[in-house]
Amino acid sequence: MRVLLLTDNFVPETNSPALRAYEHAKAWVDAGVPVTVVTTIPNFPTGKPLPPYRNRLYQRESVEGINVVRVWSLLAPNSGIALRSLDFLSFAATGFVAGLFQEADVIVATSPQMLTGLAGWWLGAARRKPWVLEVRDLWPDSIISVGVMQENLFIRLLRRLEHRLYRHAARVVAVSSGIKDRLIARGVPAAKVGVVPNGVNCRRMADAKETAAAREIPPSSGRFTAAYVGTHGMAQGLETVLQAANLLRDNDVHFNFVGDGARRQAMVALAGQMGLKNVSFAGLVPLAAAAEYLHASDVVLIPLKRTDQIEITLPGKIFEAAAAGKPMIVSAEGASADLILRYEAGLIVSPENPPALAAAIRRLQKDAGLREKLAQGSLALARDFDREHFARDMLIELQRAIAAGLP
């Protein structure tokens, strides 16, 4: 079985879609399955090529045995909708063309943005190969839920495309049971939908622990450290974390923000306006450094904005923090809260509630025994969600797509 994977994000980008695509592909290659990845130049979330890459029409490289083909796209920062949509559409076009010349028995197109699915549909039809749509996010619902757009003609067109993609895919793979349930409610046959959850490469995180211990991660003055590591986007509601930092400005608690995104500059400006001296912004860092920040923290914060997607959202950040053996404070309801409580891996607070978040941080700051208990729960969660298991599950889904044949 030869796999062709279409993804808008891939390493050295460090967001959750890039890590999932890379770690699945690496596990498949290690299992003897040839994999070709068609993707863009690394540019998330700034919209600028990461050195030494340049936005060329076509370039090929090998990444740990994975055949990676990078194609030109109209690069845009992870903010706004118009330029990002053109970015997604341009990758659908160039990814489709590049995919025509790659060997494949099955094609996988992964969201969150569904226009990658458009390229998968076109390739499946042109190559007469089964294709699988991996649904990481219910697009365009998520666009509306975070307030980027309201219902309009563009959204209605996206919904029509969404339903066509579900119909034409040989298999649809969701990253959570909640997403699967919503897909079935929209008319996708239950027998056609599989679930392969997010996870984490535990070995990668274990390697980062020794590196983190070997050097000092700011702040290094012995203060209790709460870290947020990930995309600074609209879905996280990071203003809540800054408001909690304001409530704890006199409590010897330091907040580390690590990453970049559409809301980062606004967060930096807001922290300055609030006069917060207990907040640091590390910016975008390599994957290994992000893991080191997690290991160097006392508690990891995973905030979510209250939207109609929160019940089914299961952030990849949870699994990265779990593999670092860190207690978490998760501002969520639904799937994320249920998972954390089941493993006793952290505390749950209501979304967009700064006093509740501050109180949870203070509770963990004072109670070392509780921190240790939650840390053990985190490690248990990570073991059960090791990405290597799910990469094998995804291969089974691909085999089912091949067996199902063309829809």
Fold and architecture overview:
- With 407 residues, the chain is α/β, with parallel strands linked by helices.
- The protein folds into two domains: 3-199 and 386-404, 3-Layer(aba) Sandwich (Rossmann fold), CATH 3.40.50; 202-384, Rossmann fold (3-Layer(aba) Sandwich).
- Helix content is 45%, strand content 17%.
- It has helices at residues 16-30, 82-99, 115-127, 141-145, 153-168, 177-185, 202-214, 239-247, 264-273, 287-296, 317-323, 335-343, 354-366, 368-384, 387-404, and strands at residues 3-6, 35-40, 58-63, 66-71, 106-110, 131-135, 171-174, 193-195, 224-229, 253-258, 279-283, 299-303, 328-331, 346-349.
- It has an eight-stranded mixed beta sheet, sandwiched between helices. Strands 11-10-9-12-13-14 form a six-stranded parallel beta sheet, with helices on both faces.
- Helix 1 links the parallel strand 1 and strand 2.
- Helix 1 (16-30) packs across helix 15.
- The mean pLDDT is 90.
Q: Which labels suit this protein?
A:
about 400 residues, single chain, alpha/beta, eight-stranded mixed sheet, Rossmann fold, 2 domains, about 45% helix
Question: How many beta-strand runs?
Answer: 14
Structural class: alpha/beta
User: What would you say the CATH architecture of the largest domain is?
Assistant: 3-Layer(aba) Sandwich
SSE string, helices as H and strands as E = EHEEEHEHEHHEHEHEHEHEHEHEHEHHH
The level 1 CATH classification of the largest domain is Alpha Beta
Low-pLDDT parts are: none
As for the CATH topology of the largest domain, it is Rossmann fold
* Spatial order of strands in the largest sheet: 3-4-2-1-5-6-7-8
Q: CATH homologous superfamily of the largest domain - what is it?
A: Glycogen Phosphorylase B
| Biggest sheet architecture | 8 strands, mixed
Question: Number of DSSP helices?
Answer: 15
Strand-residue fraction?
15-25%
> How many domain units?
2
